Recover the amino acids of this structure.
């Protein structure tokens, strides 16, 4: 019984990391209809930057905020230079371009940092164990769960309750009509893209324990992020939350119950889910 | 660009077809010349031929039919392991093994294709990825059969009972070249046929094709299976010529590389596969010796540049060069240039 | 006439002597990994070779030893084979060396047998490799060789119940099988054997299973790189507090400890090389590595293997000259016995595999740094798998 609770907490923590990184991708794909295979690269960049700063003595919280902002800035830069021309070129061009971008990011990071893992030391108040009454449990994982929930709540408030959120939802559902009623969809794109990259960077930083930072990060975990988006449904923030949680819990539980074939379990699940619901758990309204 | 040829234009067209035949022969002449001049580079050449076949297969599925897939490694690896296991347990004849591996891959692709080809876009992409990952994991787990991480080593009999696979790789090269030629002709004829033309339409607009009564789903399954069979042959060749097969033949990296080669060379040009594969393999081979990190950077940058600036890949550039050259020649020899 | 022929003979003899005295270049092809996630395995080889050549010069008796490096990119048997072919056919190398991964080594077995090229293995550690070709000689280690000593030590030192947790691929299986065998022979109890998929990033759930068994220790084998680091960190946060010890083979090399951090403290490793060994060769190796390549360049198993591998090659040229018969070369290498930075080593002539000390060591913090401290040495261990499977 104790184990079941621990596994559940582990699964939720893992799911939160996946959610934080993938939510940006989901919204971008739903809104801009741009397939961004380089999304993992922004997560990676954020993580690396934070690691460099923390090791150099910058206080943890400052480093996290700065690196998250930097990831967003990187996103802005890429959007202006690389992504703008892609909007009209269709899915395949976007897949290829961002795939190439991923390669470039990996090469750049390898040149700068070498191929070994970059450690992101967490401050003492986040390390260590907390006594949950039934068992000591790593503090950091509880931190992850808390951060994930707060972020999810904040995003939900923004998307569901704010003007920006309303405009965003309108633009996702039907960009043409949104433009027709005067919503500056292009500006919305850019802001959202930057936000998504910043979130990815944040996810890369806080998730560094579960998804270790090394140059191949961008390719290695890309499949995971894409799975969350595909299973959750493009553009659906709620969908990505539930997809990330489900995948996180099932993957973790699978590893506990049946270690040898846990990788099998997750992908078979994904396969079945996608066949059953090709547009994701919560399909976009504009789906044909 | 459809002209109704009248007499002088017909003559010009006839001349240009002669030009086309020459154009067609160039890659094959290069391939044969390579055989005689390569020396120790022959195994590199064989690996280029195998990659060309893989890229060609992807051109059919992705370039012509528009099936966005990152899972073609599944077929490459399936063919590779098929050939290896056939040689180990049944018969070491290469051609027989090749045929069996190809057929098996086609059946596998048909079955999985029927399951997933009603989806599109990123869902389809994810499903192809899922199949690829699942196959990889299955092969890894079944290490008693597949050798797992260590791979499988096996012997090959002589090709057609006559040509032994020699240390220098001569037999391997010519064998691969012959197989490539056969598949190329098949692909060429198919692409020009009504079936091939319908794929063009399907890629551009499935609903429209459905509206005119084309059995879209069946066509997609068909091309997917044929493309997979081709990829399976490439995998079988790769295994047979090296007498070795490993798990990396099923890895996502091979799928990604195939896409890169295709785009570099140019989609829907068939010969684009030749260019793209040759360039990629050579760059990788060379750059890896100079500085191993460079090749990722170079390939990534090349890919981005191709998407941004070279819509039709390198074949697009060659086309432009070719047309320019042809016009210049005509001017020199006093013929009217094509309108 | 006789003067003519004598003159001709004398001239020919002079020419021949000149030819013999002229310096020949001996080419050695090193197939390592220089890019991607495992790039360390090529860098270590290269740096070790450079240090060896600094200590011993880059020629033997006037014959230059030229090293050609090729990148296999990772565990890629097809590529390794292609590179080997090129090196043998194009560059006409007389030795092959390197091979971080067993599949890569296995893929060239047929080739080197056909072409008769002596091949020195700098890493690939699956026990059966040297049997695949009579031209393989290994200077690194075998997994059973590093695993058996800790499996033997444990039951005699209070560790009666163990859970094994290995990565689900061939080397993991090798380590697991050897550990199970030796540990049970010593009277220990294996509570469970878990095999973890290679692609795993989060190990917490697997470790939860281990915790439930309440063993005295966990024997772990990881694939190196991010996964191993993650595994040790998870052990430290979940199992160490419950008093479960960590037994590993080469996961706690000094060069990796800064990456793992304090989580590694008290982990027990069983390895054929300890970085803090006190002999003159090791000290010189350490100081030269730092001088040539920077402060965090600590020698590891790859380094010493490449270093010793070069010694084998140099000895062949010293004893047989540059135009040697490959079978004679194999004989020379199989009979070698010498001091290495890791202690005394020898090659077993029957198996062409390495025989060496194995050190049990614990990770400790010393002067602000994390190092391995030896507490038990098992001398001259032969590969147990080959002993058990003749």
């Amino acid at each position: 019984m104790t184990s079941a609770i621990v596994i559940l907490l582990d699964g939720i923590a893992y799911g939160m990391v996946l959610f934080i990184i993938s939510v940006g991708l989901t919204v971008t794909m739903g809104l801009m209809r741009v397939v961004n295979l380089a999304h993992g690269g922004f997560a990676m960049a954020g993580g690396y930057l934070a690691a460099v700063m923390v090791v150099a003595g910058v206080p943890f919280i400052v480093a996290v905020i700065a690196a998250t902002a930097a990831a967003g800035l990187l996103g802005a830069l890429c959007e202006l230079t690389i992504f703008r021309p892609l909007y009209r070129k269709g899915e395949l061009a976007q897949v290829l371009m961002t795939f190439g971008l991923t390669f470039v990011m990996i090469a750049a990071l390898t040149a700068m940092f070498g191929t070994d893992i970059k450690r992101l030391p967490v401050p003492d108040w986040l390390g260590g164990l907390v006594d949950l009454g039934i068992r000591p449990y790593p503090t950091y994982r509880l931190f992850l769960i808390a951060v994930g929930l707060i972020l999810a709540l904040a995003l939900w408030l923004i998307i569901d309750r704010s003007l920006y959120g309303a405009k965003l939802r309108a633009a996702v559902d039907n960009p043409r009509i949104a433009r027709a009623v005067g919503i500056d969809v292009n500006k919305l794109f850019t802001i959202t893209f930057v936000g998504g990259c910043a979130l990815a960077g944040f996810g890369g930083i806080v998730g560094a324990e579960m998804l270790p930072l090394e140059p191949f990060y961008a390719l290695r975990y890309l499949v995971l992020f894409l799975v969350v988006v595909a299973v959750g449904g493009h553009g659906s923030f709620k969908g990505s939350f539930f997809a990330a949680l489900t995948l996180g819990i099932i993957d973790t539980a699978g590893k506990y119950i049946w270690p040898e074939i846990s990788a099998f379990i997750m992908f078979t699940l994904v396969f079945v889910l996608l066949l059953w619901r090709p547009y994701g758990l919560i399909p976009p309204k504009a789906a044909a | 660009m459809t002209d109704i040829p009248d007499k002088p234009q017909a003559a010009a067209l006839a001349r240009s077809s002669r030009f086309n035949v020459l154009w067609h022969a160039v890659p094959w002449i290069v391939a044969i010349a390579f055989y005689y001049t390569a020396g120790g580079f022959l195994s590199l050449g064989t690996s280029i031929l195998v990659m060309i076949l893989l890229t060609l297969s992807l051109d059919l599925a992705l370039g012509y039919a528009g099936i966005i897939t990152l899972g073609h490694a599944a077929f490459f690896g399936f063919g590779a392991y098929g050939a290896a296991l056939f040689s180990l347990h049944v018969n070491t004849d290469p051609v027989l093994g090749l045929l069996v591996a190809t057929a098996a891959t086609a059946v596998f692709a048909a079955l999985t294709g029927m399951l997933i080809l009603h989806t599109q876009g990123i869902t389809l992409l994810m499903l192809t990825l899922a199949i690829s990952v699942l196959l990889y994991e299955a092969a890894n787990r079944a290490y008693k059969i597949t050798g797992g991480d260590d791979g499988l080593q096996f012997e090959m009999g002589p090709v057609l009972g006559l040509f032994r696979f020699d240390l220098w790789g001569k037999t391997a090269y010519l064998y691969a070249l012959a197989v490539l030629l056969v598949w190329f002709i098949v692909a060429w004829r198919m692409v020009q046929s009504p079936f091939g033309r319908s794929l063009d339409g399907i890629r551009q607009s499935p609903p429209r094709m459905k509206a005119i009564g084309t059995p879209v789903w069946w066509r997609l399954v068909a091309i997917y299976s044929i493309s997979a069979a081709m990829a399976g042959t490439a995998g079988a060749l790769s295994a047979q010529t090296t007498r070795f097969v490993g798990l990396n033949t099923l890895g996502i990296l091979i799928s990604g590389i195939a896409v890169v080669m295709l785009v570099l060379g140019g989609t829907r040009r068939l010969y684009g596969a030749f260019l793209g594969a040759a360039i990629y393999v050579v760059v990788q081979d060379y750059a890896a010796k100079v500085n191993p990190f460079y090749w990722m950077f170079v390939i990534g940058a090349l890919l981005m540049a191709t998407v941004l600036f070279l819509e039709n890949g390198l074949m697009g550039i060659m086309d432009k060069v070719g047309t320019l050259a042809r016009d210049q020649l005509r001017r020199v020899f006093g013929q009217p240039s094509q309108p | 006439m006789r003067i003519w022929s004598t003159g001709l003979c004398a001239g020919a003899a002079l020419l021949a002597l000149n030819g013999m005295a002229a310096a020949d270049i001996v080419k050695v092809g090193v197939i390592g990994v220089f890019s991607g996630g495992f790039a360390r395995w090529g860098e270590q080889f290269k740096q070790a070779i450079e240090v060896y050549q600094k200590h011993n010069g880059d020629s033997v008796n006037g014959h230059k030893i030229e090293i050609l490096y090729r990148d296999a990119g990772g565990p890629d048997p097809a590529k390794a084979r292609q590179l080997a072919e090129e090196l043998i056919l194009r560059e006409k190398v007389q030795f092959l060396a390197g091979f971080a991964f067993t599949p890569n080594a296995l893929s060239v077995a047929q080739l080197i047998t056909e072409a008769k090229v002596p091949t020195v293995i700098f890493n690939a550690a699956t026990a059966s490799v040297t049997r695949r070709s009579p031209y393989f000689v290994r200077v690194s280690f075998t997994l059973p060789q590093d695993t058996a000593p800790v499996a033997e030590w444990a039951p005699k030192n209070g560790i009666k119940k163990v859970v094994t947790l290995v990565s689900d691929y061939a080397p993991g299986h090798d380590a697991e099988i050897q550990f199970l065998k030796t540990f049970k022979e010593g009277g220990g109890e294996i509570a469970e054997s878990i095999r973890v998929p290679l692609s795993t990033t989060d190990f917490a759930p697997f470790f939860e299973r281990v915790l439930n068994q309440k063993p005295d220790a966990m024997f772990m084998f990881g694939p190196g790189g991010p996964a191993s680091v993650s595994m040790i960190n998870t052990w430290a946060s979940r199992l160490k507090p419950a008093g479960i010890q960590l037994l590993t083979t080469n996961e706690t090399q000094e060069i990796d400890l800064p990456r793992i951090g304090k989580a590694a403290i008290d982990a027990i490793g069983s390895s054929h090389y300890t970085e803090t060994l006190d002999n003159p060769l090791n000290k010189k190796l350490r100081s030269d590595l730092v001088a040539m390549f920077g402060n965090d360049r600590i020698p590891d198993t790859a380094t010493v293997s490449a270093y010793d591998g070069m010694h084998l090659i140099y000895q062949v040229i010293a004893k047989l000259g540059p135009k040697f018969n490959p079978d004679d070369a194999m004989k020379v290498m199989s009979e070698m016995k010498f001091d290495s930075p890791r202690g005394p080593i020898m090659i077993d002539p029957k198996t062409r595999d390495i025989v060496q000390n194995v050190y049990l060591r614990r990770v400790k913090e010393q002067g602000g740094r994390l190092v391995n401290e030896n507490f038990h040495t098992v001398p001259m261990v032969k590969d147990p798998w080959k002993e058990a499977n003749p």
Notes: The mean pLDDT of chain A is 85.
